[in-house]
Amino acid sequence: MSSPLRVLILEDSPPDAELMVRALKQSGYEEITWSRAESERGFQEALSPPPDVVLADYTLPSYDASRALTFLKNARLDVPFIVVTGSISEEAAVECIRAGAADYLLKGRLARLGPAVQRALRDKRLRQEKRRAEFALLESEERFKAAVQHSTDIITILNAEGVILYQSPAGERILGYEAGEIVGSNAFEYVHPEDRDETFRVFVDGLAAGQGVSRATYRFRSATGEWVHLESVASAMQADLLSGYVINSRDITERVRLQEQLRHSQKMDAMGRLAGGVAHDFNNLLMAIGGYTQMILADLTPNAPHFQELTQINLATEKAANLVRQLLLFSRRESGSARRINPNEVIAEMSRLIGRVIGEAISVETQLEEGLPTVEVDTGSFEQILMNLAVNARDAMDGEGRLTISTGVTEVAGEQARDGAPVAPGAYVRITMRDTGCGMDADTAERIFEPFFTTKPAGAGTGLGLSTVYGVIQQCGGFVDVETAPGGGTAFHICFPAGERPAAPAETPPAAKEKERVHIPMGQGETLLLVEDDDQLRKLVSAALDNMGYSVLAAGKPSEAVDVFRKNRDTIDLLVTDIIMPETPGNVLYEKLRGEAPGLRAVFLSGYTGDTLPGSDGTDIAVPVLQKPFRFHELGQTIRDVLDD
Q: How would you class 97 by CB atoms within 10 Å of its CB: exposed for 0-12, middle for 13-18, buried for 19 or more?
């Protein structure tokens, strides 16, 4: 890597471009000439003369990696193209590879940049060598033979009955068979039984019928017994002493795996959307059950008949709402924002769910340090980290063993680096998940956070679980260390920047807890416009707001709400609206009404927000969102906070 390297960086952030250059120098490239472009015109002008490699962010304000790849392809420029981005979905990653990108990696993993560039340049050299070899085929038989011997594809010659007469050295590398081991066998005996008839029909029958070239994709048994996916092109061969077929085969096993991952991702996305739709309606039902229960409890004393039974109904409603929230979390359809949480509380709650998910044969133990500082992270994302690691531990233990979750505080003295990213000095809350599973070797442990990398069998995982864990931790300013060895289990040490230590909660006497009543802030005669498409829920919330002292104007759909608003514009103090509704989302309705009354304030209600969030359409004002099912004192306090602000 001592030879000069010319790099074109398609990136709108100069600091990020400099980090890439620094990573290349750290990996051994000493003479680097580089330039940066951030627009289509700048990119195209910088291609003359062509650089050795292009490093491109996936999305820029006025340009993107996909368009840059298309331009290179149309211009017939063989320049290795590597996507270096902050985040990328699995669909986008697959499309980049399909479009011709040599590789992709995250900006937080720049330690991989040097090897990726080296591999891309090596692949380019291989392509150039292959093209030169193909051209040389026209000049002499010896050059033809050399090209066949060094081809990265498998070149096979069959006689008319399908017996293998010759196989190029690539066959040994890809399939594991030495030439003498497979020559003389019938090629179709190695084809998967489910693919055999179709492959025979395409190759033998098709070529016999006069088709010049036949193409087929099929599974071929390797020397280890595994099935390798091959994509082959066959052509008939007629010579003085020999007639048969020449087959050029390419190993597409990795491509098939990526396609399967894409289909799995699409299926999971569809399941997530289904879960989100069900959760929206179910949360409305829970809101009605819990709301009417709260209204009855508000009129009863703790000693009244059925008070305890109604209290249990209310608690069951809250537990059902929590299960719905977890359903949305694990289908990756719930949105959230970072806030200060007590990790011990979340772990204590999640440990029961983890125990049910990973099975009774695995014991789940917790060792939680008292007085643990808070951390700033989205609760749903934190729970997802715990669940992803727990499921991985279950697979590593083959369904039987012990999972220990412990917490503590660790200090980082002086600035350090993890995976090429700086780690600020200071106190960190450490969450350790240790299993008694099979462990990993050093090479595997080095790659576990890479997107799409997985040690599980095909179809058993997407390879995105640990990359999601890594991404969440990085976003929170934390880091993760892995302790593992073959046969010695694995421990993930997750570290988040430590916040304030929580004050010890004052213990409330049991008698006081029974008599404790929730205070509901009362209205002062203000007029509220309530928009809710669920009839039962609209009546419930309207009655609750009326009991709080508000004058309520109710509408069952956005178009009706617009009519009511225009008739009562001067008297309406606040809009209370569901987000997901027929006709128009609640946040879009609010923007429309605010266009007519700029001072209008709002409170959003939602059983499932999904991708429609306040601010996603340009809203420039903070609007509180109450997730259904909510308690009436939460509704009352939120409304008072907005009106009194």
A: middle
pLDDT per position as a tens digit, 330-386? 454 444 566 788 999 999 888 888 887 788 788 999 999 988 999 988 887 788 788
**Residues 6 or more apart from 286 whose CB is under 8 A from it?**
317, 320, 321, 324, 628, 629
Cα 167 to Cα 146: distance, rounded to the nearest angstrom = 13
SS (H, E, C) 544-570: HHHHCCCEEEEECCHHHHHHHHHHCCC
Q: Which residue has the tokens 């985040």?
A: 87
| pLDDT of 615 strictly over 50 | no
Q: What's the pLDDT at 76?
A: 87
416 pLDDT tier (thresholds 50, 70, 90): low
Among the residue ranges 188-197, 326-335, 577-586, 611-620, the one predicted with the least confidence is 611-620
Domains, the chain, with CATH or none: 5-134 (3.40.50.2300), 151-251 (3.30.450.20), 343-497 (3.30.565.10), 519-644 (3.40.50.2300)
Handedness of CA 46, 51, 57, 63 (dihedral sign): positive
Please answer whether residues 423 and 385 qualify as being in contact, where contact means their C-beta atoms are separated by less than 8 angstroms.
no
Distance CA 383, CA 332 (A): 12
Please name which of 150, 153, 148 lies closest in space to residue 174, comparing C-alpha atoms.
153
Amino acid at 461: G
> Cα separation of 143 and 137, whole Å?
5
d(CA 625, CA 610): 13
Q: Going by C-beta distance under 8 Å and a sequence separation of 6 or more, which residues neighbour residue 321?
A: 283, 286, 290, 628, 629
Task: Of 268-272, 481-485, 551-555, give the range with the top mean pLDDT.
Answer: 551-555
Greater model confidence, 487 or 136:
487
In terms of DSSP bridges, do strands 103-106 and 154-159 run parallel, antiparallel, or are they unpaired?
unpaired
In 3D space, the residue among 81, 70, 74 whose CA is nearest the CA of residue 121 turns out to be 81
Helix (H) or strand (E) holding 218: strand 213-221
Measured distance CA(631)–CA(298) in Å, rounded = 12
| Eight-class DSSP state of 205 | I
Q: Which residue from 103, 123, 122 is spatially nearest to 113, judged by alpha carbons?
A: 103
- Candidates 230, 122, 124; CA nearest to 171 is 230
Q: How far is CA 385 from CA 433, 460, 467, in A?
A: 10, 19, 10
**Predicted TM-score of the model (pTM):** 0.39
Paired tokens of 394: 């279950």
With bands split at pLDDT 50, 70 and 90, how would you rate the model's confidence at 459?
A: very low
269-277, long-range: CB within 8 Å, 24+ apart, which pairs?
271/331, 272/331, 272/332, 272/333, 273/333, 273/610, 275/327, 275/328, 275/331, 275/333, 276/328, 276/331, 276/333, 276/608, 276/610, 277/608
Residue showing tokens 């916040």: 499
The average pLDDT across 459-474 equals 63
